[in-house]
Request: fold
Amino acid sequence: MSQVKNVLKLIGLYFKVNLASALEYRSGFLIQAFGMALSNGTFVFFWWVAFTQTGGRIGGYDFNDVMFIWALTSTAFGASHILFANMNRITRLIVSGELDTYLLQPKDVLISLLCSKTSLSAWGAFSYGFVLIALTQGRSPMAWLMFLTGVITGGLLMTAICVTAHTFTFYFGDASLMGNMAQEFIINFCNYPEGIYKGFVRVLLLSIIPASFIVHIPLKLARSFNATLLLALLAFSFMYCLLAYKFFYRGLKRYESGNLIITRL
Amino acid sequence: MPIIQVSKLNKLYRTRIKEEGLKASFRALVKPVYKEVQAVKDISFTVEKGEILAFIGPNGAGKSTTIKMLTGILHPTSGEITVLGLDPIKKRQKLSYHIGTVFGQKSQLWFHLPPTDSFALLGAIYDIDKSTLKKRVDELTECFELGDFLKTPVRKLSLGQRIRCEIAASLIHTPDILFLDEPTIGLDVVIKQRIRELIIDMNRKEGTTIFLTSHDTGDVEKVCKRAIVIDQGQIILDHPVKKLKYDYLNKKIISVRFDLEQHLKAPSGVTIEKTGTMGARLSVDTRVCSIDEAMRWLIAKGGVADLTVQDPPLEEIISTIFTSQPEVV
Reply:
């Protein structure tokens, strides 16, 4: 329990420093956050058109269901990139020897490196989801509860996928493409109703690319709560993150450092 | 009891090699070829508490690799390391509470924030309570004269100011050992001298053991008591600096430019390495002729337009050491 407390304390510390650093450029912060929210907002219109053309249901979802998974994807993505924006730079950090800084500190290497950068535009994605939920799910306490649960589990799963993909750099040299692809895959799969995925793809979404655990299962729980399903969601998220964590540390033994000139931004 | 013990340490890197051109790139994709590079070869040494040790050598000699193994960043291929009684790989986190590190080319400060914010975060990372941290930051601010720019974003600091903050940041948790990897790289002469004084001061006041790698013979001469010279991954010399200085750092290079045409006839202890009608490069054996004497002789000639005194390049010293050492120690 004290370890969890320490990790949360560390995340909080980095969050404060990152936010202070981001606020050094206030106008950039606001423009990027607003731009991201605006870009996401245009998709609501496209979905509304699609639903009016198809008679109100796509892949078993109605308009409000799709808005729920969109909101959840957006806020979970935003949360993971506000807190762990360095996930996209893991390959670069490994290749250029930037892990040295974290290896010299008495805290968890992976948590420290993930937390030490924030994304300004992610604030837009993060708040956009809340606005969408408020507009489309009304005052349903279960929708809000499962949305918030999904933001935590989904944000962690998105981070874990990215960490896993980038960790291959320890083995193959440069896995940045794999990291970008993993992130694009997961966002694309999260943005569409579960019913359109069949067979092998569905298996993928319940395992390696766990889009179903990120958005589809929280939606199911919001519509009809089931304690066993909630436990399965929590257990899967925990196991997936644990495996990503272990995989990273296994790879870290192969780290070769480097001597590039480095600045912490 | 030594504070650092290294025994038969080796580090082998496996690097992928590729011929020139696109064809070779495709070939390497299907059938990669690897080459093994031994960065550190079977080195052994010890460091006592409170010592200031120079670990010197040319580029690629294995200095940084050794420091990275001592601090737990890199896993050794074989051999044993004990730092403060701990194995740096197995007890990396525990050890990091007791060591500080400055890599001249890597910053641990946040670029957009003032040093004071980085100090606060580092204090929390090292679990230092607020009142102890405040006291420590005040001490370091005074010692490293950081007061004028403590609240200025790091991006606006000069290199010298930044390095002072980097060293202060690495001392925030009062480490027993400070590893300095090229701390004076890129600094001008005055700032270099100030950094050296501060390092010596820290060693005197707090008894911090200093493990310093440098390219700069000045760092070795002015700061260290003992020097280990490493080349191609092997220790080729481990001596007190006094002895090293007497044996190898007894040469200075004087470059002189004249306004008038001069024909030099060198006094004893001075060798003319290169000469033209309007200038010369001289090598001075300081055991025979002091720099003071050599400069007086040059000025007495008249018409000196410019004059610089330099240490011989470290590569030259190492090459001298290397050729004069019959065996690797």
